[in-house]
Specification:
By secondary structure, the protein is an alpha+beta fold. It has two domains: 192 residues, no CATH class; 194 residues, no CATH class. It has 15 helices and ten strands. It is elongated and about 105 Å long. It starts with 7 loop residues before the first helix and ends with a helix.
Length: 404
């Protein structure tokens, strides 16, 4: 026998063993196919849901929020807003401009209000913004459903509202909306745009109007909030930096403000990856059983091969080739089926009863997940094939021949 394990004879024998029992080989391929397909579909779907929620909630909200600390007297008043003095605002703005992880920041004036249309009335909240700053924080243009975006707020009597709020108030772009502020002042605004972040809890309350207009109505020149977007969201050291540098402010971060979503994402990730890899391992055990049975059935052939000079490495190679072929076929077919099923899910209509505004199921088609599924499917199959082949390589031909 040749010293080189990889040769045409060994490859020919491996292919012959693989095709001799076609049903077993086909079942092994199907096992890998189903494992990889399920892995890809689950990963695509669950990460798609997570990415959708992240995009709707985190990208539409600040990473860091700064408010003025409320005094006990202010906390006792139901609608008493806390204001950041102009002197403190300027100091914070200068610090944020110099911080390396700050992508953008925006000053806001936030106030509760009663929102009234011609037929309905609801309590709500007004976000008074400075359009040039807010454009760097929120990409409203891609979330705009009707009308104009932040540029329309250059006119003081315009307002932008979420689609869910627009439905509740039964108003559309161009209609009038009356606001009643805590100080008793009233103002009629024109709806210049309707947007959707995709989640009703946001679209049901979020409004944008000119901060200058709201400051005039509230008879104050100060702001109530400073919103910050970070370059690296996970790095929230700017929070500690501001807390140690500026006194009299309250600072919150995106993790604190969205604990339920953050925990939900972690739980879904753990479940998704655990179940997905478990399916591939189950498929691997099935392949192991099939190849192990093949070894048992081919004991006589193995004895003959070793008698005529085949080494243990040759025997391992012959059975390992079978596992590699099964793994490649199953993993590649699994990737195609995984993509096909994921695509069908992505075009399937989804009715969420207005809790989440989305037309179809969110699916993530990242190529890395397909490569991971294929690689893990092949690796599982190779390991499943190695142990039976290792077992076959130590078969004593004399013992087998004596038992014939």
């Amino acid at each position: 026998m040749s010293k080189h394990v990889f040769n045409k004879t060994n490859l020919f024998i491996a292919l012959q063993y693989l095709t001799a029992r076609k049903k077993q080989s086909l079942l092994a391929v199907i096992g890998v196919l189903l494992g990889v397909t399920t892995f890809i579909v689950l990963i695509n779907f669950m990460t798609g849901v997570n990415d959708f929620l992240d995009d709707a909630v985190f990208n539409g909200s600040p990473d860091i929020t700064i408010n003025a600390q409320s005094s006990p007297e202010q906390k006792s008043r139901q609608f008493q807003a806390t204001n950041i003095s102009n002197e403190k605002r300027v100091a914070i703005d200068e610090l944020l401009k110099k911080h390396s992880n700050v992508a953008a920041f925006a000053n806001q004036v936030i106030s509760p209000a009663i929102l009234t249309s011609d037929t309905k009335q609801f309590p709500g909240s007004l976000n008074g913004i400075f359009p040039k700053q807010e454009k760097k924080m929120v990409n409203l243009e891609r979330r705009l459903i009707k009308g104009k975006g932040f540029q329309s707020l250059s006119q003081k009597n315009n307002i932008l509202i979420g689609i869910s709020l627009a439905k509740r108030l039964a108003i559309d772009v161009g209609d009038s909306l009356k606001i009643i502020l805590p100080n008793g002042k009233q103002e009629t605004l024109k709806v210049s745009g309707i947007f959707s972040f995709g989640i009703t809890t946001i679209d049901n309350v979020r409004t944008y109007m000119s901060a200058n207009t709201l400051q005039t109505l509230l008879n104050k020149e100060t702001i109530t909030d400073i919103h910050i977007k970070l370059k690296e969201r996970e790095d929230i050291t700017v929070k500690t930096f501001l807390a140690n540098t500026v006194s009299g402010i309250s600072i919150g971060d995106w993790k604190e403000n969205n604990k339920t979503i953050v925990i939900g994402n972690k739980v879904r990730d753990i479940l998704t990856w655990s179940i997905s890899f478990a399916l591939l391992l189950v498929a691997g055990f099935g392949i192991y059983n099939i190849l192990n049975n093949t070894v048992i059935q081919k004991r006589k052939d193995i004895a003959v091969l070793k008698t005529i000079g085949y080494s243990s490495r040759d025997v391992i190679f012959i059975f390992l080739v079978q596992a590699i072929i099964i793994g490649l076929l199953g993993a590649i077919l699994g990737a195609f089926f995984g993509y096909g099923i994921s695509y069908l899910i992505s075009i399937t209509s989804l009715d969420t009863s207005d809790f989440i505004i989305v037309d179809t199921y969110p699916i993530n088609f990242k190529p890395s997940y397909y490569l991971l599924g294929v690689a893990f499917g092949i690796l599982t199959t190779i390991l499943s094939g190695y142990f039976p082949s290792k077992k076959a390589s130590i078969v004593d031909p004399v013992t087998i021949i004596r038992g014939l």
